[in-house]
Amino acid sequence: MVSQRIMGKAAFAHIEDGSGRIQIYLKRDVLGERVYDELFKKLVDLGDFIEVTGPMFATRTGEVSCEARALHFLSKTLNPLPDKWHGLKDVETRTRQRYVDLLANPEVREVFVKRARIVSAIRRYLDSNGFLEVETPVLQPIYGGAAARPFTTHHNQLDQELFLRISFELYLKRLIVGGYERVYEIGRDFRNEGISFKHNPEFTQLEFYEAYTDYNGMMRRVEEMICAVAEELNGQLKLTYDGNEIDLTPPWKRITMRDAICDATGIDYTLYSDATSLMQAIRARGLRYEPKASRGKLIDGLFGDYVEPTLIQPTFIMDYPIDISPLAKKKADDPTTVERFEYFIAGMEMGNAFTELNDPIDQRARFVELNAAMAGEDENVHPLDEDFLHALSFGMPPTGGFGTGIDRLTMLFADRQTIREVILFPHLRSLD
RNA sequence: GGGCGCGUAGCUCAAUUGGCAGAGCAGCGGCCUUUUAAGCCGCGGGUUUAGGGUUCGAUUCCCUACGCGCUCACCA
Asked: Which residue is nearest to nucleotide B38 (CA to C1')?
């Protein structure tokens, strides 16, 4: 029961369940003193579960209602529901006690229905395009596939240190080596990094890998998949996010990172082959930069500051600097650049893809280079995944790979501006 | 982790320069047989996040702790 209006010897109330909300009408004449006064008026509170049976009728205002001939008590609430008009607004209570949030705010329930539909539409798209859904280890002896710091845990019997995965990438590529030509996984990644409006320590990732294609093929694949989701969810390719109308109709804009940065800042980073000269160019224009950054990070910084926020309509940013992309294949005509794209919608990075690096010798060299660079920057050096390199040495076909955050996709489709609104139980500090 | 801001009744929010801590909803009692944010009359409800300090007097000013938010950093 979610509302009541008692008028002496008769009362109206609304009851609600998953199928909807309906008004009930209770009269002492009909129910008798025991049920009407002693049970309904005295004992039944808002939030209690009751069962009512009786004929349907329309009130003076035409609302379809049920005239209670019998009333049964089903279940009791001990706590009052939040304010019936204002609902529950306090962000901390809403996330710590999501059950109350869901109970009090129906639009919150809608978000997670939408989220489930997105995941199910993605599965339907990939399944019907010949992709095989697989499950790879969450507990990994060596973590890799991304730059994040991992959570660490321990297996008691084996007395072995294990890491919660930061990405699925290296395992899914092993499966491409194994002969599956189209694989995908939807699951949880864990990254021991800062929490923000678009970061939660655990988040849901989709990765898929497709043999005999490259990042150009992946771009078409991504357009097609996201549009299939939009069609299934909304029946159209336009949506509104944070007040901006966004049109998903393909083809999406494609622009190289070099051109995008050049347009936004006037700096053509290909004219500066090292961090020092690039830094001078940035300083000369009075732009922001991180003094200790490598050349790749400077480029990434320019992009993040001056380009990313402007990418409201769906956009593929192509061709990344090699030193921030150790798992992507070099461009044939430019050894400083890789065949990689990220796609952006509503000013947010939504996903990442490459033509996968399938040369085991180059891959080893790139890992070694990266670790040398990271050691120079005093960062955590990733352990070398020898088994992954061993896998590549059995031959991996040319392959395109792609990863995207389900949480951010849900933010986009549900028009939520923080990730905590699309995760049922986002991480919060414990109360002691 | 840094900076800034916030924390008042079960919920949503007030409180003047530092001067008796309030309202609506919810709850309790009463009236009310077509209401729907029902209405009317009455009542109860607070360690103002916690602890300390300044002051005759602190929700208000200061310090510390806790939590949350925004933001920066981190996130190949």
From this structure: A5
